[in-house]
Specification:
- Chains A, B: Residues 132-334 form the Peptidase M24 domain.
- Chains A, B: Residues 3-125 form the Creatinase N-terminal domain.
- Chains A, B: Keywords: Aminopeptidase, Hydrolase, Metal-binding, Protease.
- The structure is a homodimer.
- By secondary structure, chain A is of the alpha+beta class.
- Chain A has two domains: 3-123, Creatinase/prolidase N-terminal domain (Creatine Amidinohydrolase, Chain A, domain 1); 125-350, Creatinase/methionine aminopeptidase superfamily (Creatine Amidinohydrolase).
- In chain A, 30% of the residues lie in helices and 23% in strands.
- In chain A, helix 5 (128-148) crosses helix 6 (158-173) and helix 7 runs antiparallel to helix 8 (259-272).
- The longest helix of chain A is centred in the middle third of the chain and has 21 residues, at 128-148.
- At the A-B interface, helix 3, strand 6 and helix 6 of A face helix 3, strand 6 and helix 6 of B.
Chain lengths: 351, 351
Amino acid sequence: MDRIQRLQKELEKTDTDYVIIGTTSNMFYLVGFSEEQMERPLLLFVTKDDYFMLVPKLYEEQLKQLPLIVYRDGEDPYSKLNLKENSNILIDDTTFSLFTIEILNRFKPRRLGKASVILRKLRQVKDDEEIEKMEKGVKKAEELLLEFVPDIKENMTECEIERKLKSFLIGEAGYISFDPIVTSGPNSSMPHLRCSDKKVKGGEVIVIDYGIKYEGYSTDTTRVFSLGRPNDTLALEIVEIVKSANEEAEKHVREGMRAKEIDDIARKVITDKGYGVYFIHRTGHGIGIDVHEDPYISPGNDDVIEQNMVFTIEPGIYLPGKFGIRIEDEVVVKKGYGKVLNTLQKELYIL
Amino acid sequence: MDRIQRLQKELEKTDTDYVIIGTTSNMFYLVGFSEEQMERPLLLFVTKDDYFMLVPKLYEEQLKQLPLIVYRDGEDPYSKLNLKENSNILIDDTTFSLFTIEILNRFKPRRLGKASVILRKLRQVKDDEEIEKMEKGVKKAEELLLEFVPDIKENMTECEIERKLKSFLIGEAGYISFDPIVTSGPNSSMPHLRCSDKKVKGGEVIVIDYGIKYEGYSTDTTRVFSLGRPNDTLALEIVEIVKSANEEAEKHVREGMRAKEIDDIARKVITDKGYGVYFIHRTGHGIGIDVHEDPYISPGNDDVIEQNMVFTIEPGIYLPGKFGIRIEDEVVVKKGYGKVLNTLQKELYIL
């Protein structure tokens, strides 16, 4: 059964009239087409028994194998649509708001909801082909990182390293799943700082969080490095704690448990060592076409872990003004247990 | 006057209660912060006399100089907000719909509109500092393209060339403004096809449409190439027509005219030669932080061209099954006239 049909089968159980999808990961998932989101509406409409796409004229030749409603630049795209008013519409979560606002104001739905309520069920459980791509992706990404890191030298800036890594990953893999994070010393205590003009010094903690796209699927891995031995021996202690948290959580992944229980396990290890207040984010997130997707391994999340889900386990400890440590793997649930896709060492790499 | 204040001054003229901005170009424009959009709300709220940001805990240290409302993973972010119901809200056009849908369903606004109705007025007219960055960006981008194109060899696939170009641009410039388009022969008649596994052959038309980000500002340029002389002499005739259309439009840019008039001028040149039906898109688009922004140089667009606007002029002719030709420059309106930022030749480059 193709993916549009699987979505339609789910729609049958609801009173949804339309699912509207932009040029996002959901469009790629449903019809295999990917494009950056832009200001021209390029939207897929799925109903219980039909689907069609609203596309600008300049995509017509490229998409001719699909059922198209075509408009030209200068025409009003929405006037080509014949959506019924007062309907129940689900909108693709990451589609740009301008389309949602037009739909809302033009077609007066009685309800607008997030398409993820249905699509997440389909996407969070991967099929074997998807898992194979993701396994290969992680392998490839790891090889590339090991090839890259010897090029990190003292006095390069974080952004210089980030740029070289990004250029290298794209040259070798074609696509990245997000702009890599390269932070060092005190900057590493900010988990989502991308990089700065700070120069990397010997003995500082360096955090690298990066991913590629492999046949459309994202990878996401974090490891920690140091040029020579770390100056601050506390860094090695913290690495040990984060590594234990990571491994404890991974070891206890079971089909049927709740996402929050995985978070609890990692968090308990860190809290027991007195660093709970410095673990300032969730333990992980699902991954697939998107680098972040369901299930989220968050405190309080009751989602049940199922066979063939893939998610990250990435506890961290962030000491403001000092450094931060995060160790991130991807885990797939197979035969009831968690199988870690990563093979890189979790200890700090001394470069 | 800072940009938040300029926005607030515009809000004074309206009955808008909140402008809500995601981690998009508008956030960069207003507060200088840029981040990829993700599932965690990281939103800027602007009212007539105040502003604040809703941010995940893991960004707190990084953004501490701004007025923050912080939530932790596992908490309900929206419960931290105290927005009044029945308000008039403008939402940032390219913010993910999931945030808009939450705002809609949680805070029951009486009206939801697009923030671009106000922000476009600010953003489409650049200040001198922005224009200087954009001029430097185009210069840099052109140098990089000329450095790159000698590496294009017969039998490389389009996607191989695309990947090498992307990797090179990122390595040299740090960021690209969009994934480059590299198409050849019959594929070049699809204006937004990115690339394929088709091998590039001698004598075929090759279209390269690419851009970098320079200090946060996008460039966007298209030129046409051929390995050796083109096999089809029609290609050279079509290049001449497209070049005339491009130059006629550029020459006639004037402060005070309407956007549609520029489109008309380019379109007339192509239509007079009998190819009007093959010019399947608008003549251009504004450019700045975003690669596509107001003003759109589209048929029927009554927007008035003002001093310090920057936009592209990019007519094209697409002959399905044969080839497509597009020539794209950036133009800034200065002293009442259009000043072309590009210097690359418009004739087909024989490599």
